[in-house]
């Protein structure tokens, strides 16, 4: 199965506006309101219960009025807070308000004193908001969050930027989000991952990808596992270690030799046939007793060795000679993963940047936000305000496949397509986890996967390994990077497991 066909599409606001325009005449607001009302009913209980609905001045408010109308029809005690002028609502929202009023619904300007109920429905602002909330709505959002009732957000939590996942001011902290037509980037990266709660996608009867093929997709391990590349499943038996490639890893300056060792252990556990580690330190270790299969050498010896892929940067440092090692690595015509100090050196040395842009072999960059900022000549806060734009800018300029790591890691590819990873948690916020990720991606490249696939699987299984550790009680507190390779190996082997081939049976004569 093609992984792209199984992954959930993600659309930016401009693309969704085009989809909505193409669906002119389709009662999208009524469909959205009914779909959300069903979610609200499940959350509030079938047998009534008080519900507070916050309706905004735009189409998100119109969705809220449809929800309120349905909940009243289902015998819920519904209070609707609405501070706008009904006459200034957009046409569809105005019709939804009138239908609500015609059914006997009324509105109030403020949350009823001492309100207590089963559910709050947030329909203040949807995908059109790209600025901090005005003061009166910011106060209303803070009040709603303080009520401690479950909150259902319509389309996305008010105060969250749909395209970036940034929440520059007060923002609804939802228990659940019913999003319409398709996923938005802001739901799955940045602040969005902590504001949305459980997300349900309601397509409103539209075949979105048929009219507007998605450029972005969400990476879910359960979906990627169903299309595991054949080499990772180890279907063939007539193979040897050379069948699965040789990976070279360069890094490990004085005091940081553990970083390339973590990358190497990750690569071994993701199937690389051989792993060579080249140390920048003058006195590299002779053996890694935790993984004696790793072959430890000076950095220049690894760069001169025949390898199928390289990982450069873990623990490399910025001492004399480090930039020369990166330059030598960029000149090797094999797929390469550039991580950590290699990225910082490229940001600081224009000849290295030029050499990177000139590469024709596949290149993968794995910056965290601060490293991405250095490469962009920006700052970390700017990167975090629009993680997708930062990743795409790097992919476009450097001709590389890029992941800007963090909550909802963002992947961007040279052809303009992009992904957001859904796996992982705070368990990954520990030293060395990025080194392990680089090792995973390098192992996949060494085994012949293309750079897009290697990056997708590396990032997703890395997060899924942390999730698996948390699920069995090893975290999120205290998960260490060295625990990730074993957990990831178990996930990939489980995904690739298949019935054993039939053995050859000896024919026997029939019993007379």
Describe this structure in words.
Helices cover 41% and strands 15% of the residues. The chain is α/β, with parallel strands linked by helices and 512 residues long. It folds into two domains: 3-214, Rossmann fold, CATH 3.40.50.10260; 223-496, 3-Layer(aba) Sandwich (UDP-N-acetylmuramoyl-L-alanine:D-glutamate ligase). The chain has an eleven-stranded mixed sheet, with helices on both faces. The chain has a seven-stranded parallel sheet with strand order 4-3-2-5-6-7-8, with helices on one face. Helix 20 (433-446) crosses helix 21 (451-471). The longest helix is centred in the last third of the chain and has 21 residues, at 451-471. The two termini are 49 Å apart. Mean pLDDT is 95; it is low at 499-509.
Keywords:
512 residues; alpha/beta; Rossmann fold; UDP-N-acetylmuramoyl-L-alanine:D-glutamate ligase; 2 domains; 18 strands; 41% helix; elongated
Helix and strand layout, with pairings?
Elements: H1 3-6, E1 8-10, H2 13-22, H3 28-44, E2 50-55, H4 59-73, E3 77-82, H5 91-102, E4 107-108, E5 119-123, H6 135-146, E6 151-154, E7 176-180, H7 185-188, H8 192-195, E8 198-202, H9 208-211, E9 216-219, H10 221-225, H11 230-233, E10 246-251, H12 258-269, E11 274-279, E12 295-298, H13 299-304, E13 309-312, H14 322-330, E14 336-338, H15 341-348, H16 350-358, E15 363-365, H17 369-376, H18 380-385, H19 387-398, E16 401-404, E17 410-412, E18 418-421, H20 433-446, H21 451-471, H22 484-496
Parallel strand pairs: 2-3, 2-5, 3-4, 5-6, 6-7, 7-8, 9-18, 10-11, 10-13, 11-12, 13-14, 14-15, 15-16
Antiparallel strand pairs: 1-9, 16-17, 17-18
Helix pairs in contact: 3-4, 4-5, 12-20, 12-22, 14-16, 15-16, 15-17, 17-19, 20-21, 21-22
